Amino acid sequence: GATAAVAAAQAAASSAMDAEMMAAAEGAVDGWRPTELWSFAAAKLLQLEVLAGPVWLTAQQAWEIAGAFPYHDFCRVQALVTLFGRIVDVGNCDVFLSAVAFEEKVELLHRLGALNLLNPLKPDGKVWLDLRAWDQREWCKVLCRLAAEEPGENWLGEVYQWTRAEAPVPGWVLPKSWTEPEDAVHALGLENGPRKNGRLTTTYTSDPALGCAPVWEVRKELQARTLSGGALQY
């Protein structure tokens, strides 16, 4: 049954974690380069693909399995990619997005898509967006709309870079034109909406201590743009 399959997957992941500790003790784990652990973890990830086939999981269950894999070499990311198609409550992916390291979150958004993982009902958290990617720019539009509609200083620590190699633009803050509909006419004849290139890092917050508060009608409207707002069939 599903419970047995999940238990087996967790056992496989735990074995991978045990191997990580052994490899670390032997000095095999070394930064971001592939490690000796990877060959073992890769075999466990293949087992996970087989075991996950007949089961459905909640986002929390998916994280309990993936979280047992080692952090190194994006093993947890690969486990979540494997399990994502079996998750029944995709609107709750914040369960693992808030638990993984930031670089893992960036990788998950790249592999699975921002509009598949992120939920406008729960926009809080830090994101790094490559505005050349359509889905990541669309999520930027969601955050811009929320910034315009919801009260308070809800964008924190925003940073914009023209390219990864360039330094951040000094003193950059969210331009008003980014919050305007793209089909609206800009006063200076420029394009509205987020730029179609560059990198944006920002943290969205709904913290009432900062004067922020959700506007649920807007969030529910925006949810229709994402997978979390769709009717899933099993």
Characterization of this structure:
There is one protein chain. By secondary structure, the protein is mainly alpha-helical. It has three domains: 1-28; 33-112, no CATH class; 121-233, no CATH class. Helix content is 44%, strand content 8%. The protein has nine helices and three strands, in the order αααααααβαββα. It has helices at 2-25, 36-52, 59-66, 75-84, 94-97, 102-112, 114-117, 134-149, 216-223; strands at 125-130, 155-161, 199-204. A three-stranded antiparallel sheet has the order 1-3-2. α1 (2-25) packs antiparallel against α2 and α2 packs parallel to α4 (75-84). The radius of gyration is 20 Å and the shape is globular.
Condensed summary:
By secondary structure, this protein is mostly helical. The chain is 44% helix and 8% strand. It folds into 3 domains: 1-28; 33-112, no CATH class; 121-233, no CATH class.
Q: What's the Cα radius of gyration? A: 20 Å
Overall tally of structural domains: 3
The level of helicity is 40-55%
Taking pLDDT < 50 over at least 5 consecutive residues as the criterion, the unreliable ranges are 19-30
Instruction: Find the structural class using helix and strand composition.
Output: mainly alpha
Report the portion of residues in β strands.
5-15%
Shape: globular
Name the strands of the widest sheet in spatial order: 1-3-2
Q: Give the mean pLDDT.
A: 86
Largest sheet: 3 strands, antiparallel
Number of helices: 9
Distance linking N and C termini: 17 Å
| Overall strand count | 3
The SSE string, one letter per element, is HHHHHHHEHEEH
